[in-house]
Amino acid sequence: MPALTTGSLICVTGAAGFMGMHVVKTSLEAGLRVRALVRTEAKKIYVEEAFKDLTGLEVVVIPDVLAAGALKEVMKGVEGIVDLAVTLDPSATKEQMFQGALDGIDGITSSLIEAGTGKRIVHMSSYGAVGNAFDTSKKVHLTEADWDTELEPLCEAQGEDTNFYIRYATAKLIAEKAFWKFFEKHKDVPFDGVSIVPTFTLGPLLHEAQVADGNIVGSILFIQPWLQGKATAEDLATRYSTVVDVRDVALACVKALTMEEAGGERFILADKPIWGNDIAQAMEKVLPQIKGNPPSNPDPAFKQALLENATIWDGSKVTRVLGLQYRDWHESFKDAAKSFYDKIPIELELLAVKSSSQGLKRTGSPNRGRVRNKMSGFGNSSYACVSKVLHINLLWLPIVSALTCLRSLSLKREFVQVVTSALVSKAKATPLKIPDQVDLSSVIER
């Protein structure tokens, strides 16, 4: 199937997300024209501002890409698609998530058929579709030929009690299966497909990420305790799958669109397996000023024991076929940390400050008198959540407390976010300084 060339128009769904922003940026820099789909007007403004110095971008607001006919107009003239949109609603039922995965594939493929100009779809899958990333019971070597066989039976057995992340991984598995089944069934369509299967994705944050919204998502959530000095000794043996840089994922998407030999292929993106001990070593080199984390274990025997039953993700195919060279994961970690502290200069903590509006909890509403921050995953029912800003003057605390009470009173969320954001902007401390060049030569490589 002919590949896309400079000036070709592509459509990127989920363009405002962690991965989407990098795909948009890399595609524009490669000379492709990009029609970026976002869910809200605010995200449209953010994406346009982020890439105002690049040419070829059009941002379109589609509140629900799963709605019937939602993609009909935006697919006109499109030659390639990078499908990144995904539902991350913890309140969605298992059936809703799985049906949404199927509807997403159907909507993308049917709209591109109707457009009549399509050449290639790049589908973003998940390493959960290949195998269990965190299984330490045996040593496993996984390639593009492998498919997970445990997720669907597990979801069936556990029903609605299934953990959200298991449901999410299963939905991604179902979506990729449907993607390839489409091409098996419709061999006469004028376009082909490529699936990208990234493992643990790290790198700089380009998407809008603010404490007020609590929308820090992606793999950085899993290393956040380390960045905040809250990791424990037990975390040293925690498996973080295999790392790949988000910029390498974006480049792989562009190569998948523009290289003819990528058509019909599945690519795992994975470089080196890492554990909490590796992150501890990186923190000691990159961010020694962050206190509270356990020291790394330099004992080679400790590292060897971790490797004994490691799942090995073979990401060599993308190098052989597409010529992609992986960034060193230390660079990914350093850049992720730099952007994290740049975007998230404050930390929210429960200070057990009695709320003056405790009577609200008698209303019977489960949300009254409680503030929940999705980034940190905490909440309380009878205490107000107070922002503790690094080096902030304590005179700010009554203002923050008042804002949390406003949320408890269920006033407009947008108003509270605007005021909270203004407060954060006013009170935030100087961001932590991370040197551009860090000597990581003493970090033991496997």
Quick description:
Belongs to the NAD(P)-dependent epimerase/dehydratase family. Dihydroflavonol-4-reductase subfamily. With 446 residues, the protein is of the alpha/beta class.
Describe it.
Residues 210-215, 346-432 and 437-446 have low confidence and may be disordered. The strands form 4 sheets. A 7-stranded parallel β-sheet has the order 3-2-1-4-5-7-10, with helices on both faces. The chain folds into 2 domains: 9-343, Rossmann fold (3-Layer(aba) Sandwich), CATH 3.40.50.720; 351-427, no CATH class. The chain has helices spanning 18-29, 41-50, 94-115, 151-158, 164-185, 220-227, 246-258, 276-286, 300-307, 317-322, 329-343, 397-408, 413-427; strands at residues 9-13, 33-38, 57-61, 80-83, 120-124, 140-142, 192-198, 200-202, 239-245, 266-269, 272-275, 311-313, 347-354, 383-388. The protein has 13 helices and 14 strands. The chain is α/β, with parallel strands linked by helices. It is globular, with a radius of gyration of 23 Å. Helix 1 (18-29) links the parallel strand 1 and strand 2 (33-38). The longest helix has 22 residues, at 94-115. Belongs to the NAD(P)-dependent epimerase/dehydratase family. Dihydroflavonol-4-reductase subfamily. This is NAD-dependent epimerase/dehydratase domain-containing protein. GO terms for molecular function: oxidoreductase activity, acting on the CH-OH group of donors, NAD or NADP as acceptor.
